[in-house]
């Protein structure tokens, strides 16, 4: 790979070069490489790592708009290693989650990343939830989720002394980890293998270069130009984008269709006061409502010893807006003028208003949580952090539930691959997703 910053050619390679690039990120970057990966979340990093492992002789750069890697979805999530219970048997989501969880445990073990296999109960508190709970059990078995069993009320109390329920699905294989820590480790692997990480590079254009630049000895070897707003240009042979909340906009700038559109949904967490941590041992989840893609508010112990409760799911007025009042005019008008979102809102007005109400009034959220732990009171919780989910929607207002790849048409289409939707639990599945993306890259590009 060749890098030129403000006319100075950098001879250093790999990690050393990358540190240098970070240090002078404010200046214009001009660089060439075989493959550029846009987006330094857990999906982009897992894919970049897998690609460089498979193709060590090629040059790679990973471009991230923030100062640090994985500050968005990959750094704002529940931190659960899901076991793969919920997903339709045979679906990509199910297969990637089950394989991803196994790979994640192995990876954490190998790299010394702390994790806890603290298990999870999916608890039915109403009789009407029992058929759905039993169906989930069957689904989990079909998905080859390990060690699943059904518990009665007594069994629930033995596992979680403060939890009340009539029946539960016990998944001891479920765990917790700090997903950002995992993502940063993928990034370190990538750099150690010779890849370059460039932060503070916000990609604003992806296009074919028509002419060979005057005097360039590279000719048309690197026909794709990836530009940023500061005037930087990375030339490469192939591009992979993994833009999370901006995946639709990254696709659009290379000439792809706007759909599926990303609509941001913010999830606010409450945190349990330290003196009440004894109430929760492992993950406690509700039986999910099949009408919605989110798993419902849950109790989740964290690796730092805290316990998070939530999240709810409300339409966010800014794509990376983590506060209730965060607002971005473009994001807001973009979302509300989209026919797909209008249809979704019309179909789910009551649910949406309920979620917003519970986001504002802690008492209402606590009331739901009390169904599982009656001893919990409003005095025991504080407002906590939030995450924003990239929810892909089609024009009819359907939530896109599985992976979507797109390359567009024409010359660019044969050289660009966009990961347009990498839905939850993409952190759990990340190593398996990395393999799948690398397979797709190899299928589409002549590496
Ligand atoms: C509230 C919440 C809870 C969740 N809980 C779990 C869980 O418990 N377990 C689990 O497995 N999954 C969970 N998930 C899902 C998981 O966190 C995400 O699926 C995963 O992190 C997605 O990773 P990503 O790399 O696709 O996106 P991101 O992490 O959002 O990364 C995208 C990156 O692209 C960068 N980018 C965007 N545009 C540009 C540009 N123009 N130029 C350069 N860079 C750009 C962004 O800055 C960002 O760093 C949760 C998600 C949320 C929101």
Automatic annotation (TrEMBL):
Enzyme type, top EC level: oxidoreductase
Protein name: L-2-hydroxyglutarate dehydrogenase, mitochondrial
Presence of keyword Flavoprotein: yes
Pfam annotation, one family: DAO
Domain FAD dependent oxidoreductase: from-to ranges: 34-439
Keywords: FAD, Flavoprotein, Oxidoreductase
Family: Belongs to the L2HGDH family.
UniProt-listed InterPro entries: FAD-dep_OxRdtase, FAD/NAD-bd_sf
Substrates-to-products reaction catalysed: (S)-2-hydroxyglutarate + A = 2-oxoglutarate + AH2
PANTHER family: L-2-HYDROXYGLUTARATE DEHYDROGENASE, MITOCHONDRIAL
An example molecular function term from Gene Ontology annotations: (S)-2-hydroxyglutarate dehydrogenase activity
EC id: 1.1.99.2
Cofactor(s) this protein requires: FAD
